[in-house]
Each structure stands twice: as C-alpha cells, then as structure tokens.
Hints:
Blueprint: H1 3-20, H2 23-26, H3 28-34, H4 37-58, H5 61-72, H6 76-103, H7 105-108, H8 110-113, H9 118-144, H10 148-172, H11 176-199, H12 209-219, H13 222-243, H14 246-259, H15 261-282, H16 289-318, H17 330-352, H18 357-384, H19 386-405, H20 418-432, H21 442-457, H22 461-471
Helix pairs in contact: 1-10, 1-15, 4-9, 4-11, 4-13, 4-14, 5-6, 5-9, 5-12, 6-9, 6-12, 9-11, 10-11, 13-14, 13-18, 13-19, 14-17, 15-16, 15-17, 16-17, 16-20, 16-21, 17-18, 17-19, 17-20, 18-19
Amino acid sequence: MSQTSLLKNSGIYSVLMLLQKGINFLLIPILTVYLSTYDYGVVAVVLAVNAFLNVFYLLALHGALNRFYYEYKEDEIMVKKLFGTIITFILVNSFIVTLILFLGKNLLLKPFLGEVAFSPYMLLGLVSVVFNPCYTIYQSSLQARQHGVRFGKNNAAFFIVNISLLLISVLIFKLGAEGVLGSLAITNIFFFIYTLFRFKNDISFGIDKELLKKTLKYAFPLIPHTLSGVATMLIDRILINRMISVSLSGIYSIGSNFGSIVFLVASGINQAFVPWFNQKVKENNTSDFSNVSKGLIVLYCLIALGLSFFGKEVIMYVTPEDYHQSWQVIPFISFAFVYHGVYYFFAGSLFYDIKGRGNRIIPISTISAAILNIVLNITLIPKFGIIGAAVSTLVTKMILSLSLKFFYRKYLDIKYPELFLLLIPLLFFCISLLSFFDVFGLDIKVLIYIIILILAIFPFKSKIISQLKSRL
C-alpha cells in the first residue's frame, strides 16, 4: 500500500466519517431551529450513554479482527472462520447484554440519564446500540481488506437513509428528540439486515473456540482502554446534565460538534493509516512515518485553528440565540482532538504487538486519563460551566499523548518526531485563543489565518508538488 493509496483511503474514510458521524454538525442549522436546547440535550445524553454501552456490545473485537486478518489473509478458509467467529459471538453477546440492560435499567441506566426519560428516549437508544455492532464488524472487515470504496459506499448509504428519516421525522412530523433517536434506530435495523445479507458469503457462521480464545485474549485488554477513551470524550455531557442541566448539555454539544470535526478527520485518516502502518512495519519499511506524522499533525492544527477563528461567526449565523455561547468551547475541543491525533501515532506501535503486551500498557494510560478527566470535570464544571468541561478534555488529551510517548518505542523501533508532535499543537492552540479577544475582527483573523497557512504549508511544498504531479 503506497502513500498514494494511503491518501486515497484517508480521503474516503475522512469524508465518510464526516458524513456518518458528523450528522449532528451538518444538521445544526435545522436541528437548532426545530429542537429546543432541552431536546438537543436529550439527544446528546442518549448518544453519550450509547457510546458507553457500545463498548460492552463490541468488546473491542473489531480491533482484533483488523489485527488478526493480517495473520490469516493468505488463507481464505481461516479468514472466513475469523469473520464468522467474531460475528456469531457478537450476535449472542448483543442479545445477552440487551436483556441485562433492559431488566436492570433502573440500576444500570437511569442514574446516568438524569432528567432524560428511559421511555421513549433511552429505549430508542437501546434499539440503535443492539443492531449496530454487526454493521461495525462488517465495516471493520472492509477496512482490514483495504476495500475503501465499498466501505465508503456503505457509509454514504447509511448517511443518506439516516438523514432522510431524520428530516422527515423532525421537519414534517415535529417529533423532536424522539424523531432524531427513532431515525437512527430504524437506520441501524436496516443496516443490520443489510450486513447479514452482504457478509454471508465472506464468513463461516459458528464459533471456532481456538480463534475466539485468541481474539478475546487480544481484545479484552482493549476494553478498559476503549471504555476510558469514550469516558474521556463523552462523560462531560453526562456530568453537565447531572450537575447543571440537560439544556446546557445541549448547548455544549453544539460547540463540541464543531470542535469534533478534527476528530472525525483524524479518525478517518487513522482508519486508512492503520492498515498502511501494519503493512509497512511487516515489511520493515518505516522511513516514511516521520514525514507522514508531521504532515498530518500540521493538517489537524490548521483545521483546528480555522474552527477556532471562525466558529463563533458560523454558530451565530446558523443557530438561534439560545445556542450562541457554545462557540466558546471550540478552541479547547478542537485542539484536544489534535492531541488525539498525536495519540493515534504513539498507540499504533502498542496495538501492533500481537502478543498483547502493548495492549496491556495502553489501558494504564487511558484509564488514568479517564479518571483525571472525570476529576477535572467534577471540579471545573460547577465553577466554569461548559468551558470547564472543554478545558478538562484538552488537558486530558495532552497528558494522554505525553504518557504514551514514553512507551511506544519499547515495542517497535519507530522514530516519530516527538517534540514536533507535542509542541506544534500547543503553539497553534495559543494562537487560537486570539478568538476570545474582540479586538481581532473577522478580517484580521482571516489575514492571520492565511499567513499561518502559508507558513505551515511551505516546509511540505515539495511533497505536495510531487503528489500533485503523480496524479496528473
């Protein structure tokens, strides 16, 4: 897989991540008119709870699939057994977890919902989360096989179905938060059926006990890591809901959605980067890693700076006045996810270790980061409101990236430009704080951004020109 292929698949994954997972951002001008801050808060809280629950449905097996595929990809029978074992186990596990959650909802779910009613809101959330894991596994199999175009078509279809149902339910039937969550539930049911139909020829249904044992052994250490990662990203909405109000959680969610554009781009690129990384390491050809990591972090910083500089004007233009204060969290959230992009590079070496030694290191850092994030949120939210939550996220992501810096080279001899990756985002973040000063009007911010853009791109001009020439 060449750098050109990496760029192609990165583009596909990033755009589709923006479409599928960025639906709330893309629909902000509509949703903020037809949804009250309370409704928006309900959606934010339910989706946050769903993200936590999804960890217990998937059990990190989508990550195990991506890794073990490279061990068996030359053996078609073993690949079918691998896919079949994981998908069968996921189906059984989904039924068991759903039964436990429904029967124990008062103890397991309601403490996290606060003002949000279980029925219909969380009930619709459960429908989504029970039908989604199989589709996630199928998409992971396409990533592992580097079928970026098919992956993209599936996610584009998911987006079109979901957004169509959402617009009908919210604009025509005026169903509010119930319409948003119901549309997502119906979409997940449809794509669950689609997955079973499309995936049936690529798998051997049933559980191979030895394969299941291997994949679970690899995946289990990732569960606390995944859970803590979700906590770091989404616990703020739940805590704002419980400590202040569900409406303020909705306001915070708007600003966070803008800042999360960096996460969507970084995650999309990482989906293409992981197979490329695995193949390069297997070929003992890691010379490109330094330049690729530098270029990507600069890209993330430029996106984050653009969001920070111009997010205020965009939010005030596209949302009602009740949501306007949400712009204040954008610089903190966007640069938090730049550091999440740094984390992806350092964590890749630990994930590659198939013996699971690296997988045991990662949870130590991520769990510690999640605990720190919760403590910071509990401390700062009562004093500073949504800005306190945003600062908590930024500090946590910075410390998480820094902690992995000390471990990743113990498992693979990769020389990332560590100081560059850690300090450049901090420099850009300091510049982004100019957005809080009224003296810097829109015209001045545009001028500053153009100058920084030129200065940032200049060191990479030869690489950019060579890539453009290769495509002509």
